Amino acid sequence: MMEAYVAIIIIWLFLFFYALGGAIDFGAGFWSMFYFGRKDTTAASIANLYLTPSWKVTNVFLVLFVVALVGFFPHAAFTLGSIMIVPVSFVLILLIIRSAFMVYSYSVQKYTKAFTYISGITGLLIPALMLSILPIIIGGFVEVVGDRHYILYDRLLTSPTLYAHIGFGLAAELFLSSLFLSDYAREAKSMETYKVYRKNAIILGPIMIGMAVAATMTLIPEAMWMVENMASQWHLFALSVIVFSVGYSALWWPSRKGRVGQPRVAVVFMMIQIGLASFAYGWSHMPYIVYPKLTLYDALTNNQMFYSLLWGYGIGMAIIVPLFYWFWRLFLKDKRYLTNEEVDDVR
Amino acid sequence: MDNVLLARMLFGSSLIFHIIFATLGVGLTLMILIAEILRVVRKDDDYGILAKRWTKAVAILLGVAIPSGTIVAVMLALLWPGFIEVVGQVIALPFTLEIFAFFIEALFLSIYVYAASRLSSTMRIISVFFVALGATASAVLITNVQSWMNTPTGFNVVNGEITDVRPWEAVLNPAFGYTAVHVASSAYMATAFVVASVAAYQLLKPNLKASEKTYHRKGLMVALVFGAITSIWTATNGHASAVGLHNNVPVKLAAAEGLFETQSNAPLAIFGTPDPEANRVVGGIELPGMLSYLATGSLDGVVVGLNEFPRDEWPPLFVHTLFNIMVGIGTLLIGLSFGALAYRFIFKKREYPNWLLIPIIGSGPLAMLGIETGWIFACIGRQPWTIYGIQRTAEAATKSANLGTFFVIFLTLYVFLLVITALVMRFYFRRNPLINEFNSQSPSV
Ligand code: HDD
Ligand code: HEM
Ligand code: HEM
């Protein structure tokens, strides 16, 4: 039984990284649209500076998550496949439109604006749609007939919790990306852009927390079991709220250079906050993958495969982590990249 | 329409779409490496410009290559849960390792493209080497799963349960070696001819400046030499694949060749239609004994025919045509590339006449057609099995409805994206003509 928990924690880790990376990625795409063509701020180009080298890497985390999930838990495929097909197919459709148009917007100057709008909007919707899957696997809206699972769309689409989850997805994406970009702008020594994103983060932070609470509260009539489990994890959730408050307040901490706010501190605290909250949420979900029929234990692969996968991920990570560090140095720290005008024509 | 058929159509069309971009991603990154090396060795900046423009093409293609790959990976799990259930127990390793190949490719590509001006030329070559390595490794690893589907090994089945799993034995299944080599070499080959097509098209234009002409000629030469080598290589290991089928999946070879009766001295049938009533291929050309010779190395080797297998285990017989198209294209392109090189090096003609450039333009699309027919043959020729001898396609498929709607949506999307991608390529390279590159001799890509 140990194995099942090791596997789900690995998957949670991948999901955590993708949640952060994806939120920042899709959010940055949205801001690049939002500030498109504005002469008074470089907010759009800072967003693009981050996006161009990193979107591919972020996307690999999505694939990593999916592959790890079906690799460790192959017996979940039938159930997940039948309830996920509709929402996930829509995510995939948005994803390919978003990536294609984002890349193409750099290549055809004539249509840059239209293409940036298409990719900005489709990207904005992706995390929201992904989060709308959460209330479904909690079991509130699924009917099981024989071995088939049906989503009860009429009930789902009229339930407040769906919209609360979507709202949470949007707010989290916009908040995390603003916060991250404010730090990125500071790294690029663009004070004015820093201020723009800091202001966005200040507005969006409380909205995100409010939406998170709303999403949980609206869950009560749909999945009481989940809410009860979450209540028993209250200390982790409470801790995550405290961490959030500290991180949020860091946006006002003074810095040596006379700037208001310590965005790096805020980013680190928010990562911890998301980590704590998502871990607590995930833990409340245990041992179910899809409530009430499918548990971790039913779905786990055999021992031989489990251990060779552990080796595979271990060795792969050992190779890739130093590379990530180098990548981070080149694109998220190197002043020559951050202040490089050449970047525009390189794309 | 029934669910299984819809799932096959949806998945097949997604792969047919993905493979176009994936193949070019595998091949172009290697050609960029070659151009970067030639630039240093020959001290000729034209090769630097080739590398730069090919890199731009890769960057555009990636906008679709990566999400379409994500689509097929997720669809594999959604549409074929029965298959994934077995994969997760027996052959999950290559999928896992593939992720790291993707990481290596994506990280080094960004480094090569966006950090170019901050890297020494050795570091640039090293970066693009890892891009090419990552791309080829991901193709080889995904092919590993596909070869295992043809020759499943590394587990036992007891009362329908999978037991005694040996993950590495599954990875090193009998078909892996020859399949991986054939897939990689055919991807290089197809890309070489696509590049040759583009160069030949440019050379056909009137009023080219001398510098542009030399540039395109260099591009054409690199592509033709590379294409000639890889096409011979592809035919050789394609032959090894056919021998592999003879040993491991005889029913597929029989369907490919339209052979009904088990026999020695089996004839090789080129084109025509396999006719189960007549027990032979009608309307094709027959080369007596050739099939026995190719499959077993001797004219009186015995080749197994379709009649040895129950009817419901036959793949659809039109795979014969798919197979012939692939082999025909391979043979044709060997002739074309060696002919064109002979014209240049044996007859010492510097300029290609139009009658030679025009067929070269056709070679790129033909080579891509070879890739498509080859894959469709490999997947449809495995029917009715998804995992040969173990799991039928109907057992692998999802039970959920709604597939028809999604098939229509995805298909529309693919067609639309193909058109848009072509337009974007055209637009970009028009807006940034070669002349500009000669003027701004900056080394950065
Ligand atoms: C440019 C593309 C191309 C060309 C010219 C050829 N092939 Fe090929 N072939 C492929 C591209 C390809 C492929 C798309 O890469 C396949 C599909 C699945 C696979 O393993 O490779 C393939 C599969 C494939 C298979 C089936 C393997 C299996 O199902 O396990 C055989 C027997 C051959 N090929 C044989 C040949 C021969 C004898 C060729 C002679 C010239 C040839 N191919 C040229
Ligand atoms: C033989 C056929 C295939 C080949 C040669 C191939 C090759 C490639 C290559 C080279 C890429 C990277 C695109 C690029 O950077 O140029 C790619 C992307 C991808 N492919 Fe395929 N692929 C094939 C089939 C498949 C299949 C069947 C799957 C799913 C099971 C798949 C899953 C993916 C995924 C998930 C990505 C995106 C990775 C990312 O996020 O970077 N591919 N493929
Ligand atoms: C990228 C090139 C490929 C193309 C164009 C291709 C094409 C197709 C087509 C047309 C089908 C439908 C066949 C039918 O049901 O009649 C199919 C099925 C399938 N292919 Fe491939 N395929 C490719 C590569 C792969 C690879 C690399 C894998 C392994 C991971 C794979 C796994 C499958 C599976 C699992 C099915 C569904 C079950 C089945 O019909 O057997 N394919 N493919």
From TrEMBL, chain A:
The membrane topology of this protein is: Multi-pass membrane protein
Name of this protein: Cytochrome d ubiquinol oxidase subunit II
Name the Pfam families on file. Cyt_bd_oxida_II
Question: Which key words are in the record?
Answer: Cell membrane, Membrane, Transmembrane, Transmembrane helix
Q: Which organism is it from?
A: Aquibacillus koreensis
> Membrane-spanning residues where?
6-36, 57-77, 83-104, 116-142, 162-181, 201-220, 232-253, 265-284, 304-328
Primary localisation category: membrane
Cell compartments where the protein resides? Cell membrane
Family listed: Belongs to the cytochrome ubiquinol oxidase subunit 2 family.
Which Gene Ontology cellular-component terms appear in the entry?
plasma membrane
* Signal peptide coordinates: none
Automatic annotation (TrEMBL), chain B:
Membrane topology of the entry: Multi-pass membrane protein
| Main subcellular location | membrane
Per the record, its GO cellular-component terms are: cytochrome complex; plasma membrane
The UniProt keywords, alphabetically, are: Cell membrane, Electron transport, Heme, Iron, Membrane, Metal-binding, Transmembrane, Transmembrane helix, Transport
As for subcellular location, the record says: Cell membrane
Gene Ontology MF terms = electron transfer activity; heme binding; metal ion binding; oxidoreductase activity, acting on diphenols and related substances as donors, oxygen as acceptor
Where is the chain membrane-spanning? 15-38, 58-80, 86-113, 125-145, 175-198, 219-236, 317-343, 355-378, 406-429
GO terms classed as biological process: aerobic electron transport chain
Family annotation (InterPro entries): Cyt-d_ubiquinol_oxidase_su_1
Residues in coiled coil: none
**UniProt key word Electron transport:** yes
What's one Pfam family here? Cyt_bd_oxida_I
Q: Which family does the record assign?
A: Belongs to the cytochrome ubiquinol oxidase subunit 1 family.
Protein's UniProt name: Cytochrome ubiquinol oxidase subunit I
Organism for this UniProt entry: Aquibacillus koreensis
